[in-house]
Amino acid sequence: MNLILLEKKDFIDRDHVILTGRQFKHLVSVNKVEKNDELICGILNGKIGTGRITKISSECIEMKVHLDTDPPKSLPLTLVLALPRPKMLKRIIENVTSLGVKDIYLINSWRVEKSFWQTPLLSEDNLKKFMILGLEQSKDTRMPHIHQRRFFTSFVKKELPQLSKDSVCITAHPNALKRCPSGVNKKIILAIGPEGGFIDIEIETLEKNGFLSYHIGQRILKVETAVIALISRLYL
Amino acid sequence: MNLILLEKKDFIDRDHVILTGRQFKHLVSVNKVEKNDELICGILNGKIGTGRITKISSECIEMKVHLDTDPPKSLPLTLVLALPRPKMLKRIIENVTSLGVKDIYLINSWRVEKSFWQTPLLSEDNLKKFMILGLEQSKDTRMPHIHQRRFFTSFVKKELPQLSKDSVCITAHPNALKRCPSGVNKKIILAIGPEGGFIDIEIETLEKNGFLSYHIGQRILKVETAVIALISRLYL
Hints:
Two copies of one chain form a homodimer. Chain A folds into two domains: about 5-70, CATH 2.40.240.20; about 75-235, Alpha/beta knot. Helices cover about 30% and strands about 30% of the residues of chain A. Chain A is elongated. Chain A has about 240 residues and is an alpha/beta fold. In chain A, the strands form two sheets. The first copy, chain A, has a seven-stranded parallel β-sheet, sandwiched between helices. A six-stranded mixed β-sheet of chain A has the order 1-4-5-6-3-2. At the A-B interface, helix 2 and helix 6 of A face helix 2 and helix 6 of B.
């Protein structure tokens, strides 16, 4: 926890907060904080700054906070990701949040197992928890938006054209002929398939809607590894 | 498993192998292979090619293999990594192996908890298992070498100068003033600290031994995320 993410409900007046629950426990047992310690804080979707601990009890921590700095810049990237298997989902959401991604579309694809859509990890509450971990890690406050789309074709044909306006449109595809560009540093919409990749007809549908397919080398990476490697090379 | 990694012990003659254990179970229950299926195979530290299934019994699979192609190129990178916490270790070794890293030094550092060195995951057998998963993922056969060094100063002063000859020497450090170069594409030795980073005196010791410190942006990433992001930007 490199930043304590505060929400409106934590404030007892303009500049005093009370922390309980997970954050309280973490600060006491892992960070072993003491009275008068200064910690980095931020308010959800707002400024970051510092908080000085004014009181520690057995149940909560009180802090006086001063928030005056903008959070780090977001990446101008929209990530379109075939729904990964549940055990990868948490880490991927946490990782891409820590990298500064703010728009994530979890979509269906031929090779996404139907059961993946049943996981409780896809609940709003759970996804929020994973994103908070990513924000706390990277000292950010701006919560990403996650959208779930269970129909590939209707998403790609009806919604994607509007979303991808003014963006560089990239599909990551191990069998593509061209290597993915690097240092693009502009608005990008990046589509990444499931384990095993998008099937040919999905690649074609994406191409018909303006997406170019690129590989990132001969090695097949796990989706969770490829996502980080791709984002890292697109924004240098 | 994108490649079946064969060892000498699997061969019953020049071009026939018998698979049992983990690989057998995975091929039958996950890949649901059948007789005459052709699979991608490779021999440890050697060529890759294909294997055709000639027999499936309740305990083993027999294949006729033909191995004639070189495995993918390795990265000319030596990774010097402060020993990560055990639950991250497996994933990091698997990931960097899949990215093509062949030399990994796990070293001590001030912020590495002593208990991390006690984990059974550091046994030769376990590390080999994690590397095999990375090789199978990325269709590679060349096993990385992992070296464990429990004394930071003696490693950096006595061993590192020799290791880093003819290499670009980089320390990844969140507080560095310069942004890490990209597309270096040469021999690199990359040092990455533990959670919380190397302490100042460690950074100084590395700098005195020819290492330049670079950050990769304002965001603090988890070590397992940073490793992938760094390797991805260094080799475009």
